[in-house]
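Before the break, one more example. Copy the sequence into your notebook; we will annotate it together after we see the structure.
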Amino acid sequence: MTETLEPGAGLEQGQSQLSLGTAAARNLSTTTKSVPQMQGITSRWLLRVLPWTQVNGGVYRVNRRLSYTVGDGRIEFTKTGADVRVIPAELGELPLLRGFDEMEVLDALANRFRQHEFSAGDVIAESGAAADRIFLIAHGKVNKVGAGKYGDESVLGTLADGDYFGVDALVDPDAGWDFTAKAVTSATLLSLTRADFQALTDQSAELREQVVMFQANAALGRADDSGEAEISVASGHTGEPDLPGTFVDYDAAPREYELSVAQTVLRVHSRVADLYNQPMNQTEQQLRLTIEALRERQEHELVNSRDFGLLHNADFSQRIHTRSGAPTPDDMDNLLATVWKEPTVFLAHPRTIAAFGQECNRAGIYPGNTDFGGHQMPSWRGIPILPCNKIPITEQRTSSVILMRTGDEHNQGVVGLHQTGLPDEYQPGLSVRFMNINEKAIISYLVSVYYSAAVMVPDALGILEDVQLGAN
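Here is what the structure looks like once it is written out:
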């Protein structure tokens, strides 16, 4: 009997089929399958480039030389409509008020700040003029401009949200501006005059004591160019002069990093584990994808954790801003100047790398690639620029670029922290523990990964902040 196919089955209506069709043949064939795919898996370059240090006991202490910290933190503000007010406790980030915790006095100081609005190009403070107030930058970008060697204007630095300048003006009647502060964008600043500060100082014995202590520490605390306690050394002398005595002072309260953890419970029904293991082991595939997700979370935390993440652990002196918004070659050079001792890698969001490439094209500069781990990666000054999608992009389409020197205690770089030799260890620092089989015959496994990161010295990590994406 001749089979007549339905229309659309591959033969014209009325034609006879002369051989076995593919649809029927598939009933006797075996398909070739891929392992389960996962779009969320990334290259995770940060986990690759960090040297991992064994941490026995779960805590890693970074001992450093004593440094004279003079309150170089960022100031935060509250905003109600168009009115901006400095958070009183945040005034403790100023060098003059570091450690001062009299909230009534800080609140009174906060109330004496006055708000100012500036447009792009406005001069906020003129070089050579008397300085009689401190400025806090609530929003916007300000350039510190000074005279270059040959009389031309030179940008000495860029300040942005949370920065300040003119703190010495509060206690020094002879203070003057040694640079011109000029608004790059529209900016909102708060200012406190010396007269207002002095009036409050006259009323508060605690504030007077704080000012005296600050001035005494400034006079006695000798520091070298790195801000560390000075080691006195004599050189180039002749004869028999008295040599200086010295010792190396240590930080009395070194930073300790505790290992963090990312965990989940993987559940697999015993029926699935028993019956559906060919050609692929179901439990192994479930575990593989679970571990991939945990490793992605691990990298996210190494970048974004407020406790140990790179974006939050960079020293404030190592954070710089772009001059115009978009990431230009000049900005990348300035970032290199913050980590100039054997920088290892840049890390940036792929969209940030694209924005940097656009700026290079606009300037007629074509940076080359460099071989990194067998991959041809874009680079700047020979330093590879690695993509990392864990670096966030804000709603205003700004992001950051990270530059770091990796290495152990010898290189004084950035290191990853983990502990190997865990019970039921599946990968270094990652364990898979059988938990139980419940009354529904579901097998449970506890999957845990332990990790952290440490910055050995501040100049091992630099951040280019507020990088504008998609700028014209």
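The chain has ten helices and 25 strands. The longest strand covers residues 442-455. Try to locate both features in your own notes.
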